[in-house]
Amino acid sequence: MAVSSTTAQSLIDELYLMGRAIKVSIARNEDQRLLAGGLGVLVTLEEHGPCRQGDLAVSMCLSPSALSRHVAELVADDLLSRHPDPTDGRATVLHITDRGRALLRRIRVERAEVIAALLDDWGDDDAERARSTIRSLREKLTEHALRTGAGEHQPVR
Question: Which residue numbers delimit the HTH marR-type domain (predicted)?
């Protein structure tokens, strides 16, 4: 069963508006010092483990130059560190620092408390269904971007 273009456009509109709503409702002032996307870098590195910057750019569907800005800021704030790549001395591998992990934990706890309070009329099953659907959509979008090189910030392999 195919999704109609009208429904697809409505979904895109809702996702954009959701992103805006998330930004204004759960972001704390102290989190604003991270460049937009800096938190995403920390989350991705925590999920995938230490990796080269180029590999991180591909997995995040970011251009290497856009990622470089995020990485530079996170390294300067001691949230990430660079280490020589043991397989290629010319390259470096990015790692989350203890300070970065602590920041990520704190932000997650604070944001989870806000979302839990906002969803006081939902149960865990409702929230899990929403999470599962959103994750499936994200995976499809990422797979498409990597397969086709779609988007302005096309990843470089």
Answer: 8-143
Q: Is 1 exposed, middle or buried (0-12, 13-18, 19+ CB in 10 A)?
A: exposed
Q: Running DSSP on this structure, what letter comes out for residue 79? A: S
Sheet holding 80-85, edge to edge: 51-52, 88-96, 80-85
Count CB-CB contacts under 10 A for residue 85: 14
**In contact, 68 and 53? CB cutoff 8 Å:** yes
CATH number of 26-120: 1.10.10.10
- pTM (predicted TM-score): 0.74
d(CA 11, CA 123): 23
What is the rounded distance in angstroms from the CA atom of residue 130 to the CA atom of residue 135?
A: 9
What pLDDT, in 10s, does the model give residues 55-97? 898 888 888 888 998 999 999 999 999 999 888 888 899 999 9
Domain boundaries, the chain: 26-120
